[in-house]
């Protein structure tokens, strides 16, 4: 009998992982035949009537029983499941009553392997149709397990005039930290916040080559030896490290590293990227609160921006927190659900044609600092 005919079966052949529900003893024997499975994880207690005794006897150390039920849903359990998935030989069978809890083991393992932040992992789990979403306590367990425990986070505002938000993210264990979109005029403030929290800056990251202010990256690099600047390759700006869609910037402790997933979100400029971290997305000027970045200079394209927001940002879980690079009305954050419903330019009710029409008629003044900001930012914020 092929594995595909087992009850509630879900095969991830490239990972050598099969998720399955309760099996008859005959199915267990069949699954073990010809060495089809080199390891097995069973998620019900040993007392369960369907306990696959034959698998335990045949596989010895490669058989792991890990009870996944209400009272055991802790970070310790998530770590044990992930470790079992990482270390057991392939192919491995992951079994529970209906393959619902088994899907938890799979997403925890894939998120660690691919360094997906929580929001990115949950998006992919949804796209894969993993069954744990059908049980709210299990979905909550997965969400909590994928959070970056104790992540340090500060939102800092440019009071010198550009209304830019700079974001500080830090690891509570190693104290490594990154700044997203620092502003030249606010560098002393940023350093004071970093020092005050006992953090060590590793990366100064830009979402794009800004036109309205000079990045603080160059000055930060002068003051903090070893600090690396980061920007997208497509921005054509100077930096120590270039990122592209799909890259992950990691910092913090190995065991619980903090991951920033890079998503290309061109349209405001061709080199715009957004960074997904934990349950947040830092959207730069691609998606603003109830708005979006203008598309009338720096290679801007309304069509591209529409695709970027719809295909890279609105696919994130609804509860993902949106942190933009600017707000001109004192708003600090939004969510993907809010922007999908309420963004007057590109909420889901708007077509691409309507969006392009809106963008063609914004009639915004050019940013006051554009003539000095653009050349400086192409050189990592060095103003000469
Ligand atoms: N008045 C400001 C510039 C305001 C502006 O154009 N903001 C940009 C982002 S910075 S290039 C934008 O895309 N705005 C979209 C919008 O709808 O406001 C200045 O002079 O700096």
TrEMBL record:
Lineage: Eukaryota, Viridiplantae, Chlorophyta, Mamiellophyceae, Mamiellales
Database matches in SUPFAM superfamilies: Metallo-hydrolase/oxidoreductase
CDD domains membership: POD-like_MBL-fold (cd07724)
GO CC terms in record: mitochondrion
Molecular function GO terms recorded: metal ion binding; sulfur dioxygenase activity
Cell compartment(s), UniProt: Mitochondrion
Organism: Ostreococcus tauri (Marine green alga)
Official protein name in the record: persulfide dioxygenase
Enzyme Commission designation: 1.13.11.18
Enzyme kind, highest EC tier: oxidoreductase
GO biological process: glutathione metabolic process; hydrogen sulfide metabolic process
Cofactor dependence: Fe(2+)
Entries under InterPro entries matching the protein: Metallo-B-lactamas, Mito_Persulfide_Diox, POD-like_MBL-fold, Prot-tyrosine_phosphatase-like, RibonucZ/Hydroxyglut_hydro
Catalytic reactions on record: S-sulfanylglutathione + O2 + H2O = sulfite + glutathione + 2 H(+)
Source organism superkingdom: Eukaryota
Domain Metallo-beta-lactamase positions: 163-326
UniProt keyword list: Acetylation, Dioxygenase, Iron, Metal-binding, Mitochondrion, Oxidoreductase, Transit peptide
